């Protein structure tokens, strides 16, 4: 078993990060996807992750959502270990029970929405609160309606996903994730599967969340303009590492590294 | 009596029953393939009469039970002047029944051949019959062989029913031995294992081999 | 025009008697009811047991998966008729004596549960991986995910297979005649041996089977459409 002695059992302090990746390693077989990743995200911070495909961006979010196991290092959420638990005075890999306890801090929206097709918009939003949080149906319905209102989908509350456009489905998916009251929200290429004309309705919802709510957010995106507008910090991933990071004005306006410059100019040309 | 002694005493009967089962299976399977091809192709005919007679055959034999068909052929058909000896009635009923299922497999396999293949064969001026035989059927065969593997197992299992018109197959012998010894677990258990060996270790591997062989022949593997 | 039919010498043997057919009809209808009850009982067992087998084959436990997989293969490779005899005669050897009805339904249920487990597996595998990930993101347990999300979505694609095997069970119930369940063939056999007339009884049994299984395909399709609409899919 990996020696975890260098890792703290808890991160404390007034400005402790909401999310902390410590030397996180991920490999598929012999293919190293993430190499000793260190990344801290403060409470309320909006971090965008950009980079070429295959650079490990999405894997970062999927590990944080515990959809992928990590092969080394540890992830902390709100100061407490997520991927590990404390047994005696040691950190050991988390059990499913531990994950179920800790996962409730995190919500996620997917590229392909992954709405439940046999449930209406409001039922999608009520499923988690009723089944997992144990809310009564009335409470869950109130909460769901409020959130559908927030994403501008209140009038479609009784529609099944098959009757909704991609943009509408993604907005319902955001409401569904928010209904769990997570501390951290993850957006995994939420506009990549959308037709160009409906991208705005989804980005506007995220803008609203950034402006009005104090959520910690991590977003993987291919939309540089959007990332520049709303992020507190942008991380450029290359080959399983953070090649460069900084405030959007600096990273987009004055990139220091050659790979960042190449990537950004290639993206610009494509537009 | 131990199982070994028991088998020592009755293995001849079991083997002769197994032999009859295998023969019933082979004859039934051959008839199935013939009928399936014939009625599968007929169902795709543009001639209404040909097509409809195929539909009637398929629906009647798929819509009723093998056992009902077997009894009907054995007990009722003689009234129409067609008397089949029980052994023949057995595999004929099996073939007629499975042929109806096979016909649908043939039709499905042919439909799965891309339209471009028909057009290409027509473009080099092949006759309809030659196109079917040389171009379409070989490809259809590869498409449908996996499903035929399952149908063959069903045919083998179906042969057990011929024991009910006193054909002395494995099932029949097992019943006879059970009636005289009351060693039900031993005899029926042994019979189950023999059927299992036939299906799982002879028939299925053969069909898999045939699949691979045909795929290689058509350059698909 | 058809007069040659009546001149032929075999024809007198082929004397369909309507009054006789009419006379045996009530007994055959009663047997039809029995057939349907046996089929329904067997199907109920198969539906539940099939799901157990399907879920067992998806379990993380390699040994369980292997044992269930091999058992399903074994049952599917051997004749139902022999399995019926096995259950009927072997049970009493070990002190378990069940009625022919119970034995028959268990045998048919067990046999078809192995087919249904494959249908269920196909349905379960057809649910996209994203649904599992969304369930994890909502922090749902595996049991909740199956019950609330996966199984409801696995049902519509499984309906055609489930329907076909219901018809299959119905058509296999005549095998229960061998252990004395008074279904259609058993009744037709009895009628035949009483009167030495087989034509009407066996033909009517065939027609009853046709009348009940022919509309089944259309009904199954309609039912699938209904369920899909109900689930909004």
Any overview of this molecule?
The complex is a heterotrimer of chains A (271), B (221) and C (233). In chain A, strand 6 (84-87) and strand 7 form a beta hairpin. In chain A, the strands form three sheets. A six-stranded mixed β-sheet of chain A has the order 8-9-10-3-11-12, with helices on both faces. Chain A starts with 18 loop residues before the first strand and ends with a helix. Chain A is globular and about 50 Å long. Chain A has nine helices and twelve strands. Chain A has 271 residues and is an alpha/beta fold. With 221 residues, chain B is an all-alpha fold. Chain B has eight helices and no strands. In chain B, helix 1 (3-43) packs antiparallel against helix 6, helix 1 packs across helix 8 (184-217) and helix 5 (115-123) runs antiparallel to helix 6. The longest helix of chain B is centred in the N-terminal third of the chain and has 41 residues, at 3-43. Chain B is flat, with a radius of gyration of 21 Å. The termini of chain B are far apart. With 233 residues, chain C is an all-alpha fold. Chain C has ten helices and no strands. Chain C is flat and about 70 Å long. Chain C starts with a helix and ends with a helix. The interface between B and C is large, with 40 and 42 residues.
Helix content of chain A: 25-40%
* Rg on CA atoms of chain A, Å: 19 Å
Question: If helices are DSSP runs of H or I spanning 4 or more residues, what is the number of helices of chain A?
Answer: 9
On the 0 to 100 scale, the average pLDDT of chain A is 93
Largest sheet of chain A: 6 strands, mixed
Intertermini distance of chain C: 58 Å
Order of helices and strands of chain C: HHHHHHHHHH
Mean pLDDT of chain C, rounded to whole units? Answer: 91
Inertia-based shape of chain A: globular
Q: Write the H/E string of chain A, N to C.
A: EEEHEEEEHEHHHEHEHEEHH
- Can you count the beta strands of chain C? 0
Number of helices of chain C: 10
